[in-house]
């Protein structure tokens, strides 16, 4: 989409350049070898570098080198590294949205939403390193938000309540995503799941954590719950936490319905 195709240029002038690029609201360069370079090719190359070597390894010069172009060639398409990061973030948010299925409950759909979002953090470990600077503004991000709002389409809530639940569940996605990402990274670097859980340090902690200084942590540590030494009756901690969030949403919905009755 280029400017002029149903787009009021005055309205979009206040948007950051990376955002307009994500929407395709940009005039493509007229100079240079036609078809050899594009915004998508640049973004895809940057993602490959970030996936392999981390976000710090991404630079305009490194991306240009990987594509066999000069750095200045890239600047004709993407004007800054900051814009490139915006486009990278949006590209990896462009995940498949499952179709609506008759009979599937909203709880099932929210579980799908959460673990799909967590999957982005695991597949692209650098994703969580990009700071949040505003509400989502790019199409890939907004498609994911639209998915969550579809799940809540029949909730008898006002728009602000829905947006608050969106923030709550998405924040849990981010927290779980960062934990899963860091665990994946630790294991790739040679750690074992037992090391990550702390079980290998349990004996040392039991000597260091004294009841006079840690009166509430000490009994939990001694029971084996802190370092996963004991059998866990609640199962996976992240699944358990998600179910309690969904319970809270369900309770709130029931209260709204009974209040209206």
UniProtKB/TrEMBL annotation:
UniProt xrefs under InterPro entries: Homeodomain-like_sf, HTH-type_TetR-like_transc_reg, HTH_TetR, Repressor_TetR_C, Tet_transcr_reg_TetR-rel_C_sf
DNA-binding region of this protein: 59-78
Record-linked Pfam families: TetR_C_1, TetR_N
Domain of life of the organism encoding this protein: Bacteria
GO terms of molecular function: DNA-binding transcription factor activity; transcription cis-regulatory region binding
Protein name: TetR/AcrR family transcriptional regulator C-terminal domain-containing protein
Keywords: DNA-binding, Transcription, Transcription regulation
BP-aspect Gene Ontology terms: negative regulation of DNA-templated transcription
Domain HTH tetR-type: 36-96
């Amino acid at each position: 989409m280029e400017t002029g195709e149903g787009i009021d240029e005055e309205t979009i002038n206040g948007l950051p350049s990376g955002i307009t690029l994500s929407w395709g609201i940009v005039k493509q360069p007229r100079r240079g070898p036609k078809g050899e370079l594009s915004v998508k090719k640049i973004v895809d190359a940057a993602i490959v570098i970030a996936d392999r070597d981390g976000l710090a390894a991404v630079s305009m010069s490194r991306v240009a080198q990987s594509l066999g172009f000069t750095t200045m060639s890239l600047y004709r398409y993407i004007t800054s590294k900051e814009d490139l990061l915006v486009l990278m973030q949006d590209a990896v948010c462009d995940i498949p949205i499952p179709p609506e299925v008759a009979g599937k409950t909203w709880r099932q759909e929210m579980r799908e939403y959460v673990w799909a979002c967590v999957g982005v953090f695991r597949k692209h470990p650098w994703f969580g390193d990009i700071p949040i600077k505003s509400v989502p503004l790019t199409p890939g991000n907004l498609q994911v938000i639209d998915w969550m709002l579809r799940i809540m389409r029949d909730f008898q809530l006002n728009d602000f309540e829905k947006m608050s639940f969106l923030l709550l569940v998405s924040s849990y996605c981010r927290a779980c995503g960062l934990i899963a990402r860091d665990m994946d990274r630790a294991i790739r670097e040679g750690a074992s799941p037992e090391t990550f859980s702390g079980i290998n340090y349990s004996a040392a902690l039991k000597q260091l954590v004294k009841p006079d200084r840690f009166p509430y942590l000490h009994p939990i540590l001694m029971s084996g719950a802190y370092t996963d030494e004991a059998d866990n009756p609640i199962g996976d901690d992240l699944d358990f936490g998600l179910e309690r969030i969904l319970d809270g949403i369900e309770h709130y919905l029931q209260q709204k319905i009974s209040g209206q009755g």
